[in-house]
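Record 1 of the preview.
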Amino acid sequence: MRVGIVGCGKIADGHAEQLQTVARAELVAACDREPLMVEQFAQRWPGVARHTDFAAMIREERLDVVHLATPPDSHVALACACLEMGCHVFVEKPFAPDAKGAAQILAAARATGNRVSVNYLYNFESPALGLRDLLDAGTLGSIVHLETAFGYNLAGDYGMAVMSDPMHWVHRLPGKLFHNVLDHVLAKLVAHFDDDFTVQAIGLRRRPESGNEAIDAMPDELRFMLRGGNGVTACGMVSSHARPVAHTLKVYGSRDTVELDYACRTLVRAARQTQPSALGRLFPPWVQASRFGGNALRNVAAFGRYESHYFQCMRVLLEQFYAAIEDNGVDPVAHEEILRVARMIDAIVVALEVRA
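->
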């Protein structure tokens, strides 16, 4: 399949890198409204045709698939146009600025018969795939509660871009910084909830004032609580200040509990005391040590298979997306989950506005 990328910013290189490994895909073109951006991208990825008009790119390059790596306020118009021009579409998160926009894109996919998916890459990390196996086997029992933490380093590459530019597109999002990362947080939770959910949320700014109104209007700490009509609950933290920068999920089941660390790529069952009294407190740390040791060995094996790089999870997702297109298979990210994530983000943004 012939593939083009729209938007030649930092994340576009991640897409291009992983597309090189997908046997069913060939990156042939890139587009950006800024000629310098697409020129620099083409220099990094030789052989890619340069365009500044996405519709012309689709027609001239006879594209089958388009990757959208543009700011989210452009996603609805671009995705719907690409779908109507006969292309399948892979969208960077956030999928859309709100649930209404997400529903528009999904409706366009249904109407045209073309595929659309979103870069919920962390659901395809090795710990997440291991969790999926445990859930399918019923090892954890029914889900009772989930706890998730996601760190955002404002001193990192992406954070500095946001903090140094009051006109950055993140400041245009209804939920600002949180809106840009909540897909990563909620995509891990959404499969365990139904459409009947309630939200409580609080946002705050811990960093000192900068003197710039747009920058200072952006909170950098979020706490939220979700309650589903099915009885499942979840609490979450998005933090720019907690260290080390976290990326974790703890799943409490009626039979067992597991904790996932996406940064370290570990999945470990919770310790439990099985021997009586003081003797019983001696063994759990050793059991936990052996479980972490097993994770370490699996990570070494993944390293040996060249599956230890940062965007390995995106590679897995893209392979499944392209396989679904070519083989008419199941979408790797269910459309109802994409829409539910968007509705949850809307609800968190509203809850923050009400509190303010």
